[in-house]
Amino acid sequence: MTTTPVSARTTSPGTAMTDEQREAFERDGFIVVPGVLDAEEVAHYAAAVDRVYAEHQEAGKLAADGSLHKLSAVESCHELAPLLNHPKAFGLVWSMLGWNVHVYHSHLDVHPPLPEKKPFRFEWHQDGGRQNRELESDPRPRMSVKIAYWLSDVSETGRGNFQVVPGSHKTNWIAGPPRRDVEWPNPDGAIEVTANAGDAVFFDRRIWHARSNNYSTVTRKGVFFGYTYRWVRTREALSDDIPGLTPVQRQLVGLHDGDGDHAWGHYPSDVPLYGALKDAGELNPAHPPLIP
User: Fold this and answer.
1) Which domains does the chain have, with CATH numbers?
2) 147-175 pLDDT, tens per residue?
3) N-term to C-term CA, the chain
4) Which residues, at least 6 apart from 239, have a Cβ–Cβ distance to it below 8 Å?
5) What is the residue-wise DSSP string for 229-265?
6) In the structure, how many helices (H) and strands (E) does the chain have?
7) DSSP calls for 106-146
8) What is the pTM of this model?
9) Residues 55/91, Cβ–Cβ less than 8 Å
10) Nearest-angstrom CA–CA distance, 194 and 153
11) Is 98 left (phi over 0), alpha (psi -120 to 50) or beta?
């Protein structure tokens, strides 16, 4: 059993990103930071993630392919808390977004080798969900950044690597298939990002990216933290026992939790206001924010 790494107990906010890192990040939309976690830390955090995986495996809660994509990383695995502000990576966050930030989205991922080819699904996307329809500018604003900590060796392609199109964070749209299950080539310029265990990838939420399938002999493990401004959240503090609220009213005051996707809006039929607008015939497809 590993002990908590010394670096996990530091209160240092880290150091600012270098001019070279900033230039590369602004140009490419991502950077790889080598050696953020030392061997002791990799072993510690990988063991913690392995325990979570084993618990879900025993409970029959893994995906059909044996993978685990677990939201709320720290809530799901308390040992991961030091990664929230690891001194060798956290400086990248406040260098880009400033000091008024918080983690709004996080997850731990385990993807064992696939024994056979999976059915095709086009997975290229930008982070942020409905932000990418509802914000009007071109390019859309950055809004958030993300750190991926690698706990397994993805130094070769084909290991479920993080795929990106460098520079695509300034592009609101890429060509894609009419349905996600229609065979379609990767976007022009797409690459698989390679990294060693202990490396971190820091990326702009707008970069077009996807996870590749893992057909290697290595289990892919990583922990992801998304940071945004603290004002991207409700300022209300309401109890759940206010009588007489309609479903739409509950949505508006932040008490509706039926969609289960962090308010991303991926499941329109679960969002009360969507249902009300649909019933009223007000979902005008000429206005992008109203498109399901």
Assistant:
1) 6-229 (2.60.120.620), 247-290 (no CATH)
2) 999 999 999 999 999 999 999 999 999 99
3) 48
4) none
5) ETTSS------TT-TT--HHHHHHTT----S-STT--
6) 7, 9
7) EEEEEEPPPSSPPPP----B-TTTTHHHH--SSSPP--EEE
8) 0.87
9) no
10) 9
11) left
CA dist 240 and 254 (Å) reads 9
Q: How far apart are CA 221 and CA 203, in angstroms?
A: 18
In the chain, at which residue ranges do the beta strands (DSSP E only) sit? 30-33, 68-71, 101-111, 144-150, 162-164, 191-193, 200-204, 209-211, 220-229
Does residue 1 have a pLDDT over 50? no
Q: Say how far apart CA 162 and CA 119 lie, in whole Å.
A: 19
Q: Supply 188's token pair.
A: 């022009």
- 227-255 pLDDT, tens digit per residue, is 999 888 766 667 777 778 778 878 777 77
Residue pair 196/222 in contact (Cβ under 8 Å)? The answer is no
